[in-house]
Amino acid sequence: MMTPITYQTVEVLSNIALGNGIHRIRLSCHRRYAQAVPGQFVMVHSGEQIDPLLPRPFSIHQLVKKEGSVAGLELLYKVVGKGTQMLSLRQPGDILSMTGPLGKGFEIPANVLNVKIVAGGIGVAPMVFLAQTLTESKRNLSTVEVFIGGRTKADVLCLQAFSAIGTSVHVTTDDGSSGDQCLVTDPLDLAVAKNRPDIIFACGPMEMLACVAGIAEKYNVCCQVSIETMMACGMGACLGCAVADRKDTNRYLHACKDGPVFDTRDLRI
């Protein structure tokens, strides 16, 4: 069953700068967000009326619960342009517009027991929600391992959140300032070879996702990836977030409606 889509005005509950251009904003939301699944996203307008004109897409980072009900959600974002710069200036009590939950999220098969989660940079944003959902489910998981990569120590995010969830975390950086100095896919490859998982979930730069997909194919492991791409509408009207279909070279999928989460067997990356 699809999650109902809601357009609403929302209140900024908090907006915290975490350093290195990373912010975590907490927004009020409709109770329908209780039905949101990891990997889905929202379109948020920064609050300015004309410039920037279009909203920006953000993965749902976490749901905020109060007395058993969803009272808000958190978004983890990096300031990279005018829209996110404007968003970083919003203060508690400010009113924004938001549409969501949008897109297709991660699908967790019923028989999954051994899971690998891979995140690169700000691609970690939806993976905290995913790890929470996995560990809070009633399934008897044997292993949930998280692999986080970044250029430097400052790019390695959410370690405390994953620790609180109770997952093991492997860290890599390009410069060796935190964890192992290598690509995040290097320890992933070794871990998959040693203890083949039931599924791999990943989000990050397209080059990283292509490597993760190659590892999954090499070991015949199911793999789902959340892709990062520019969107103008978030609902399939503008057709601006096209990605290549692996099964049909003449067909394109659209991240906002067909994704942003895809099985790597369906995607050319």
Short description:
This protein has 269 residues and is α/β, with parallel strands linked by helices. It has helices spanning 82-88, 125-136, 159-165, 185-194, 206-218; strands spanning 6-19, 22-28, 41-45, 56-59, 62-66, 69-78, 95-102, 114-120, 143-150, 168-173, 180-181, 199-203, 222-226, 242-244, 252-254, 261-263. It folds into 2 domains: 6-102, Translation factors (Elongation Factor Tu (Ef-tu), domain 3, Beta Barrel); 114-266, Nucleotide-binding domain of ferredoxin-NADP reductase (FNR) module (Rossmann fold).
Explain the overall architecture.
With 269 residues, the protein is of the alpha/beta class. It has 2 domains: 6-102, Translation factors (Elongation Factor Tu (Ef-tu), domain 3, Beta Barrel); 114-266, Rossmann fold (3-Layer(aba) Sandwich). Helix content is 18%, strand content 35%. It contains 5 helices and 16 strands. Strands 4-3-7-1-2-6-5 form a 7-stranded antiparallel beta sheet. A hairpin with a 2-residue loop joins β1 (6-19) and β2 (22-28). α4 runs parallel beside α5. The longest helix is centred in the last third of the chain and has 13 residues, at 206-218. The mean pLDDT is 90.
